[in-house]
Specification:
Chains A, B: Pathway: Cofactor biosynthesis; thiamine diphosphate biosynthesis; thiamine diphosphate from thiamine phosphate: step 1/1. Two copies of one chain form a homodimer. Helix content of chain A is 34%, strand content 24%. Chain A has 319 residues and is an alpha+beta fold. In chain A, α2 runs parallel beside α3, α4 packs across α5 and α6 packs antiparallel against α10.
Chain lengths: 319, 319
Amino acid sequence: MNEFDFIRRYLQRQPSDSDVVLGIGDDAAIVRPQPGYDLCFSSDMLLKGRHFFADVAPEDLAWKVLAVNLSDMAAMGARPRWVLLSAALPELDEAWLAHFCDSLFALAAQHGVALIGGDTTRGDLVFNVTIIGELPQGQGLRRDAAQVGDDIWVSGRVGLAAAALNSRLKNCVLPPEAAPECEAALLRPIPRVALGRALLPVARAAQDISDGLAQDIGHILKASGVGAELWADSLPTLPALKQHLGRAQWLAYTLAGGDDYELVFTAAPEHREAVSVAAEAAGTQVTRVGRINGSGGLQIVDAAHQDITLTSLGFDHFG
Amino acid sequence: MNEFDFIRRYLQRQPSDSDVVLGIGDDAAIVRPQPGYDLCFSSDMLLKGRHFFADVAPEDLAWKVLAVNLSDMAAMGARPRWVLLSAALPELDEAWLAHFCDSLFALAAQHGVALIGGDTTRGDLVFNVTIIGELPQGQGLRRDAAQVGDDIWVSGRVGLAAAALNSRLKNCVLPPEAAPECEAALLRPIPRVALGRALLPVARAAQDISDGLAQDIGHILKASGVGAELWADSLPTLPALKQHLGRAQWLAYTLAGGDDYELVFTAAPEHREAVSVAAEAAGTQVTRVGRINGSGGLQIVDAAHQDITLTSLGFDHFG
């Protein structure tokens, strides 16, 4: 099997997408944008040993490669439409590829996303996905839209993926009752696409939590020229995890762990009811965890309103 | 300097592009498609040791990373508009990055292309570019559009990059008078964007020559369900190279070498004049090198119309 057979056999599944004029197999794919919509674009590169373990199951790897990109669309409130996948693979192992592709296409189908192109080459497991989504013209959950007085919300639960990662790195031991959910959060993050779209008319600023909640909120604050107060003990967690881990460890994983792929977003207080309705419609829990203020910085406080100082504010790829 | 400083400092140059609603720095970029246009998309991944030498100059590397993607747009007849660049870098070497970015932005500016997003991470020099181009709705130089009787044309000259690569690998010695042009072809291929756009109303099928002329023509033949006769001795070359290399070596580099990033395209014989006019307008030489027929296969013949058999039909990334 050579590169072209591989493309034909595993990737050239015709998308049932009438906006795709020309799919995989030419120098480029052609799509027809719908009138009245903007398009949004994001790319993520994942490398073995940095973004995933060498022994990761192909099903889990494929899921994550696509999920982290879907998460970017969720953070814009966009409807994901198309992806291009580049892959450097050490060899063409048919069984491995079949598992990878089945998982990839299953997640893509869940979100109505068509694979329209990409590249394959030989190399040591590198993946890059570019995702393209649709937004009603002029809309979009941008980082620079937070306003003083906004509530800060977080979807799902945070810190679980970091706990699972640190358990694998022997930095902590997970309580048995929390292990499966933490592992799932690390291996199969759920992109909050439905929530992002439901929030589009309701929320102001949003972003997904990939590098650590505190750091990712910081991007919103900086882009919007505002500050915030974040209530650490209000952060949605697994109770078993919070009870079991030391306080410092729990705070580190929750505030600076990253890899959560939950949404952090702001909305005006008068939209609390609308946020709840959107969350319910999307089937996703949301929790109010702080407030935007004019301080220009991020203050993290505990239940007694005492300052919490983090030694590290999240993951820096070159840190 | 951390990842975010890097992005701000080197990549966050605001494109002067009124169709970019939101550029680098959010979860995704937003662009506004123009009514009446389709969009086309292509991705290429380049790895150290496979697509470029470890000691390549950053200026040349940046050029090639972008040029090979521009070439895909050229092969569709599209106007390139936007790119997303993902890069895995072993370290943040400011001088290296400055050279890389200056070269990248210079080539982008030449083609009116704006960088709207991407990703940076730590790793051993991997690049992925996704490029987005515009096509008037319903148009595009597809691989499946060749028709029996069409002329086959090639732009520029072929085999030069392969000669330079093989010289580096000590498989051949370049004649001194040909060495600079061969080196330039390998390091700084010229994407035939103007030619591709000029050919849009004139040519039928097209593709760029990345994996070797014979193999790449093969893709057109297969997609179009046709065959072809290719005149090896009509192929545009450097005369000094053809004279100097052995016949088998010259044929191998020219027909199966790859990395040319020239266009191979077909057009009806009644459009010969129009093809010449388009080529002149684009400032690019084109040469008629064969004819599409109904044979279903590719026959390569010499000046005496004797069959030439290639042992390898071009580069297979997994061969």
